[in-house]
Amino acid sequence: MTMVINQQRLQKRAxxxxxxxxxxxxxxxxxxxMIIAISHQLPEVLPVLFYFNMSILLAxxxxxxxxxxxxxxxxxxSVLFMTDWLVYTILFAALHWGLMAAWILxxxxxxxxxxxxxxxxxxxxxxxxxxxxxxxxxxIFYPVLMFCPGILVxxxxxxxxxxxxxxxxxxxxxxxxxxxxxxxxxxxxxxxxQVVAEDRANLMEQLSITDQLTQLNNRLYFDKKFxxxxxxxxxxxxxxxVLLMDIDNFKEINxxxxxxxxxxxxQLIASTISSELxxxxxxxxxxxGEEFVALLPNTAESETRAIAEKLVRAxxxxxxxxxxxxxxxxxxxxxxxxSPNYQEDREYLIKQADIALYQAKNNGxxxxxxFVMESSAAM
Length: 379
Prior knowledge:
This protein is of the alpha+beta class and about 375 residues long. The chain has helices at about 1-20, 30-40, 40-45, 45-70, 80-105, 115-130, 135-155, 160-210, 220-235, 250-255, 260-275, 300-315, 345-360, 375-379; strands at about 240-245, 285-290, 290-295, 320, 325-330, 330-340, 370.
């Protein structure tokens, strides 16, 4: 599965790079043709040749512009479709230019622009094949479509100069193929190594913030998330709540049924808690041992109570079997809510939730207890 995802990422990155490299060539054919043709009064001398080729070149440029527009606008079309669209449009432009150059070599009426056309064709073919060599199809077929029609015409004409020129063009074609093959290989090796490095870095980061037993976020991740949400809630002037959860009588479960069963209980509780906290902004983590913590941004005290009591009920509905015996699992939860302030000690909110958890344990377990200030309790 990972390899499939990597291939998709590679193809998408290659499409982006190819699109960027190809942007400069959208109007190059039009501009070069106009310079050659207008400098020799081709619109007056050979109007059919001039306007026919100009219309095709402008149409191809329009298709290329549409591709560029679609590539940068949502919704994204499939990478394969967008790649084929760009590649075949570029190859069509190469074929048209190659046939146009061959016709100019063949037509005696266009003798005045032959040398310019040969030079322009060589420059566009070599530059295009080199710049766009990240595409194997373009690397192979682009210079062939540019050069081969002219080579065939030169061979057909049968003059000694034509044979020599055809041979030189063929040597240039071979040279372009050999150099672009190296460039193609270097490019794909480079982006493959980059994607692999990114995957490894992401994996290492994920491992560093994930509790391996429960697959929840770990204490390190929670601490960073807590700092971030404290600052955000303080800036937005919205409440922030914390729930500390502890599995009841977990030491007795471990001592009686063994640590493997205890690990199974932790996994069951982790799955239950994470399935109950569905908001994207909520964060649940293993806090240590049999303790879990939930961070609830923009959650008032009444909402926090409702969430915590729902968690107590959900955990109490969890049971596990060991050797045919059903073991009931419960938890106690302590919660605290505050309106964060940059100047306050954010750790005090955790201490309040911990005090409330201790009260829930003392009150008989399997319940939720919100933090209550001593002065409020006395009243």
